[in-house]
DNA sequence: GGCAGAATATGATATATGTCATATAAATGA
DNA sequence: TCATTTATATGACATATATCATATTCTGCC
């Protein structure tokens, strides 16, 4: 069992507030797990009873809409925690987590984390701030979905993907989403998404290399948003 | 200056976790204020530096979209707190608060509240849970905006308004929103909202009495959502 | 009481987006 | 390697929704 003390990604999450003793305790009770691309980490409605710490990889958090379509609410990556809201609310998770690439995740049971809450003020403040950031972001996304056109949302999402996950040496977006996933992030039909990507390609905003996408004219993309 | 100890609405918010001493301190540093219908309590981008406790009345929290339209993110009523996210994140508020009716609100400066955070675990847990509830709700709304039709959103919103704010003796919705506000809650054009209300009226789902609305067929409205 | 401005209502039309059909390309697995 | 499935692409069309124009009704106010 690897030590949490030496885990670098810990520095990027609320866990950075934990001291040596707490980290030792953490390492003792955590379990590690490899998650294959496409595998489900947890599903909407499930009782998770703890949080996941993402050591490597990216996953999507989706919510099933009554119309039967999944909507991607958020992408979560290395260094971030999963399941905090559910744990604090003491409710089942409201989102499904699915790996977009092979992942390494650690699971820490609820009672351990709740102990830190009581004793380590900085830790609970960090968690709070993270959740507050999520709330702000979610409110903003809600307004985007309600008020922006699909075209605007697509431009915005492409910029977000490059900003957050970067690009490969050949300039293509590092994170690899299917057209279907991209559509379910911006809240539109897959065909509409593909069509708009074609338009963007024709008008020189992006370049499509098979499934890969290169952002060619970032200033124009930004102006669209 | 009225005493917080005797304030009933306190029982409905995170503040219920405060003990007598804390309530006395609270009463000493709070300021009360009457807010007229239509008046702005705070505006997006402002530094509020504290929280508001709503003693009476209802307000809307809106966010300005780049297209120039306001979107109503949430309605907040008697007993609830305003500005918690901003205070914890230590950021300007991301939403604008405007009174929908005459209101009574109390303002408590940030440093006072932050003191309670450190010393009263139950209080900070309450605040956390509230924010977690807001996040869950916001994620759900985001998916609604992205995946549901305007008609479905209208039906859902009407049911929500009756559930949350109740009805008058003549069965009309207690909370009085303009068509414009209703439209900006469901994320559509005012004309579309009015048109759909007319449709709902014609098909017997609701009854329109001037500006007032009566829900006539709740089971059918529920089935639409 | 009557007038100005706002809110509500409705029609005509444009546009964005969804849906269905089908083709092609890519990935997967026996 | 080939066959089968899955992802991407595009056309044709239907539909939801926005926009613009114009009544009509309501409301506050002098």
TrEMBL record, chains A, B:
Keyword annotations of the record: DNA-binding, Transcription, Transcription regulation
SMART domains per UniProt: cNMP, HTH_CRP
The Cyclic nucleotide-binding domain, residue ranges: 14-105
Chain ranges of the HTH crp-type domain: 148-219
PROSITE patterns in alphabetical order: CNMP_BINDING_3, HTH_CRP_2
Transmembrane segments: none
CDD domains, sorted: CAP_ED
Highest taxon listed in the record's lineage: Bacteria
Pfam name, any one: HTH_Crp_2
Keyword Membrane included in the entry's annotation: no
Keyword rRNA-binding recorded: no
Protein name in UniProt: Crp/Fnr family transcriptional regulator
Organism: Flavobacterium magnesitis
């Amino acid at each position: 069992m690897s030590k949490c003390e030496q885990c670098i990604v810990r520095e990027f999450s609320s866990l950075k507030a934990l001291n040596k003793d707490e980290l030792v305790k953490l390492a003792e009770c955590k379990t590690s797990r490899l998650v294959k691309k496409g595998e489900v980490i947890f599903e909407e409605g499930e009782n998770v009873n703890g949080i996941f710490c993402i050591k490597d990889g990216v996953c999507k958090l989706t919510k099933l809409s009554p119309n039967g379509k999944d909507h991607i609410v958020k992408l979560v990556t290395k260094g971030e925690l999963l399941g905090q809201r559910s744990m604090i609310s003491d409710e089942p998770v409201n989102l499904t987590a699915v790996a977009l690439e092979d992942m390494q995740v650690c699971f820490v049971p609820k009672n351990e984390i709740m102990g830190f809450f009581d004793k380590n003020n900085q830790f609970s403040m960090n968690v709070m701030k993270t959740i507050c950031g999520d709330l702000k972001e979610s409110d903003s996304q809600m307004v985007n979905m309600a008020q922006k056109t699909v075209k605007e949302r697509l431009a915005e999402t492409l910029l977000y993907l490059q900003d957050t996950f970067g690009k490969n040496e050949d300039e293509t977006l590092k994170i690899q989403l299917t057209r279907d996933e991209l559509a379910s992030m911006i809240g539109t039909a897959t065909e509409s998404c593909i069509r708009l990507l074609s338009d963007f390609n024709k008008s020189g905003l992006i370049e499509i290399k098979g499934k890969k996408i290169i952002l060619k004219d970032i200033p124009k993309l930004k102006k669209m948003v």
